[in-house]
Design a protein that fits this description.
alpha+beta; four-stranded antiparallel beta sheet; 16 helices; 14 strands; flat
Length: about 450
């Protein structure tokens, strides 16, 4: 029993390390210090040499976090506000084998996230959880995302079911009422139905911002889908906290690291992100997908509300107009000019309207992002004739001819340089003619 009590322990405490250091400075040998403390000589030697630190236990397993630490330091130096879950997605794709809990603990323990002085003093407003019956409410909001990879600002309409927190988003070219209706219909069809009530902010395309009264044009849309509309009071963004939280989640977890060249590619990635990551989040002990499956949503009309979308485009040199990842032809003579693309929701036709207001071409609508080329045969024939008529048999200028400056150019250069001219004008002859005339 006494031998078991004197069995060497593998780690020195702070008190034992102080005692060992003091005895070593007095000239005690490693063996004497080890016998005095009841420790192994190799353990005492390692601490006195600085190979081990007191109070820190030697790892029994390899450090899986260390190989990824340089990458995480660089990422957090570039963006101190990037979420830990986003970083975990990145290092998991690079081969990190441990769980998110372990990853977050190591991230905090090593103090890799730098302190942001600009955000240190910002405090949020008090909030409280509001109970929402299943299928009762869906919240809508625009998410403006600056610095889109394809240029300009991206507009995303986000719809969130208040009970389950399930959301879907749709990229849009604008925030006018027609694009709002198109985005609402696209989000609802991704969710599989609509809730009984829509909660919106004081958007100008929905209501009068000053009074909050619903616009007649949007009231027609609400009646078409069979829902009621609740407009939030002014300056009360926390009344639709579910969609505000999803907006923050999308901006930090999805948009901050998105790599997409076109809005169509970004939309496809957003749909995958919403299903694979958004629906797997934990909420109230269950996943979002499980809670959403229990919600009973109203069925949607067979066709979307017939709103008319318009977008302005510039005709290319090939007399083509790009729209939603496809190209549509116009008659020759319009290249370089601006035309309007007009599309009615639910229709399979698309119209191209000139600046004067006349329809110059009509095409069958291609699926968004399909990369289709729709060119009428008469447009192709007319464009070929215009190109052939523009050709000439005249020989173009020779690009490699030797053409030094001519006489006139040399005289002009001499005048600029202030050099005397070679032409000398004498007035003596004019003086003789004047004397004879007298």
């Amino acid at each position: 029993r006494r031998s078991e009590q004197r069995r060497p322990r593998p780690m020195l405490t702070e008190e034992e390390f102080v005692e060992a250091s003091a005895l070593h400075r007095r000239g005690w040998s490693i063996s004497a210090i080890a016998r005095h403390l009841g420790r192994d000589r190799k353990t005492v030697r390692a601490y006195l040499r600085g190979e081990r630190a007191p109070g820190v236990r030697r790892r029994a397993h390899p450090d899986h976090f260390a190989p990824f630490e340089p990458y995480l330091r660089e990422r957090l130096a570039e963006d101190p506000h990037v979420w830990g879950s986003t970083l975990y997605d990145e290092v998991s794709a690079l081969g990190y084998p441990r769980s998110y809990v372990t990853f977050a603990r190591e991230l905090r323990r090593r103090s890799l996230r730098l302190r942001c002085e600009a955000c240190a003093g910002v405090k949020g407003r008090p909030t409280i959880e509001i109970a929402h019956p299943p299928g009762e409410e869906i919240q809508w909001d625009w998410l403006e995302l600056p610095g889109a990879p394809w240029g300009g600002e991206a507009h995303v309409l986000v719809g969130t079911l208040s009970h389950s927190g399930r959301f879907r988003g749709v990229f849009s070219e604008g925030e006018d009422q027609a694009h709002l209706v198109a985005g609402i219909d696209a989000v609802l069809r991704r969710l599989g139905g609509t809730a009984r009530r829509w909660r919106v902010d004081r958007i100008a395309s929905v209501c009068e911002p000053a009074s909050g009264r619903l616009r007649a044009s949007f009231a027609t849309v609400a009646r078409y889908y069979g829902v009621s509309v609740d407009v939030c009071p002014a300056w009360r963004a926390n009344r639709k906290g579910a969609v505000e939280s999803r907006n923050h989640f999308l901006a930090q977890r999805f948009w901050r690291t998105l790599q997409a060249a076109t809005p169509q590619e970004a939309q496809a990635k957003l749909d995958r992100f919403s299903e694979r990551i958004g629906d797997r989040r934990r909420r109230s002990g269950s996943t979002v997908a499980t809670l959403a499956a229990a919600e009973t949503l109203q069925s949607l009309p067979a066709l979307p509300y017939p709103a008319t979308l318009e977008a302005e485009r510039v005709v290319s040199a090939a007399c083509l107009v790009s729209y939603e990842g496809n190209r549509y032809s116009v008659p020759p003579g319009l290249h370089g000019r601006r035309v309007s693309v007009r599309r009615r929701l639910g229709s399979e036709q698309i119209e191209l309207v000139s600046a004067a207001g006349s329809v110059v071409a009509s095409h069958r609508l291609a699926p968004a992002g399909a990369g289709a080329l729709r060119r009428h045969e008469e447009h192709r024939v007319a464009l070929e004739q215009a190109v052939l008529h523009s050709l000439t048999s005249a020989r173009p200028c020779r690009r490699k001819a030797n053409r030094p400056p001519g006489e006139a150019a040399l005289k002009a250069a001499a005048a600029l340089a202030g050099e005397p001219s070679d032409v000398v004008v004498s007035l003596e002859a004019y003086a003789d003619y004047a004397e004879q005339a007298r």
